[in-house]
Design brief:
This protein is of the alpha/beta class and 244 residues long. It has one domain: Aldolase class I (TIM Barrel, Alpha-Beta Barrel). 39% of the residues lie in helices and 16% in strands. It contains ten helices and eight strands. It has helices spanning 21-30, 44-53, 80-86, 96-101, 106-118, 131-135, 139-150, 178-191, 210-214, 231-243, and strands at 7-11, 37-41, 59-63, 90-93, 122-127, 160-164, 198-202, 221-224. It has an eight-stranded parallel beta barrel with strand order 1-2-3-4-5-6-7-8, surrounded by six helices. Helix 8 (178-191) links the parallel strand 6 and strand 7. The chain binds 2-phosphoglycolic acid. 2-phosphoglycolic acid (PGA) binds at residues 11, 165, 170-171, 202-205, 223-227.
Amino acid sequence: MPKPCKLAAGNWKMNGLRADLSEAESLARAFTAASCGILICPPATLIAPMAEALAGSAVMVGAQDCHPAEKGAHTGDISAQMLVDAGARHVILGHSERRADHGETSHLVAAKAAAAQAAGLVTIICLGESEVQRDAGQTLGVVLAQLADSLPAGAEAANTVIAYEPIWAIGTGRVPSVAQIAEVHDALRAKLPDPAISLLYGGSVKPDNATEIFAVENVDGALVGGASLKAADFGRIITALHAA
Ligand code: PGA
């Protein structure tokens, strides 16, 4: 049975101008031969210039969303094929900020993922409970239901990565205990359609807590928001993943 690939994925969210491409370039200079996947998902405006700047390097470029349709009358949206055309290899789907800000359901996420995978993108599908749900003891039920409904048919290690991101840990500096992370990752692994799918943890991953998080069984890497914006910070997280 092949082991899941390690992946350090940066989610720049709605941050980054052309001047910030230098952060991606210095990351590429620091990691020339990576033993884990390194990915930056900048805002859509930076996908093409970042892909050009990082061409031939060990750092891959991804997107943060796509539309489920191939093309057509969808003002303001971006298709999976357009992301490929711009140089993206991955796309984050179903991030809790999109589920909250844009009312995205797991079924819509599955439709987007099917379109993205058909276009040749690796989908990073995000799952996670709210604080209210955790306090009510519903975490595993919520996350496993999201997994069941958000994965398209044909999801396998070659086209799918899962990111467990407790909503209350995103951007807050609060991180679940290693036991809490392990409980969810173990439950997810047991339900994956392909056990070699990589399982990322996301939510306030920083250079100072990365080693502890990467030591948890069934954690294959991280989806990193704020700490991915600076090459120095993200680099320390990548180094911790290499060492894990
Ligand atoms: P954070 O964001 O690392 O800033 O908490 C993680 C994410 O939302 O992917």
